[in-house]
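Reopening this one. Same input as before:
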Amino acid sequence: MIWRNQDLFMNPFKMHYKTKVMLGEGSEVVDTEEQYAEERDGMVHTYSVTAGYVFADSHTTEEFIGEQALADLDLYLAKLQSAQTVGTEEINGVSATVVTGILDGKDMADSGEEWADIREGKVDADASIKLWITEDGYVLRHEIDATALMNGMRSGADPEAEPVDDWSYGEYVEQMTYGDFNAVPDFEIPAEVLEAA
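Same output, byte for byte:
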């Protein structure tokens, strides 16, 4: 189980997230990671803090922002098929309409490297998606069940390779909750992180 809390600013781009890896809900934390990113001089400069070490890198703004969750969310909304309204729920005290649908594997094939196995014909699988959308159009949460897709990638990644084992994902679900729109507290990249880079 991977837990992540992310603060995000746009124009100019700035991001901070903390990640915890756990063996299951409520279990001990087995790994942590923290990352800062800041847009400067037409580039996004990143600083990843892992096991006490700082790893710095730079990316073009378009390249880096295109890899972020908000870019994925725009993609999901554009590619959503068979959408159905299934009810309403509250997320952090805000009412939202719940919409379900399908992300067709073939339709997603040209959407990025994570879909490369579909593009190359190694996997043919769909993913079901659920969205919680407010009355004024904000997405408060998205949830993707990609179990079939991930199992297809495992078995189809290299058809000629000898299988290493016979395990499969019992469930592979990604859920992200959004909040504090236009109200995220500002932050600065710590001096010790910048100095260590």
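So the earlier flakiness isn't reproducible anymore. For the record, The first strand starts at residue 2 and ends at 9.
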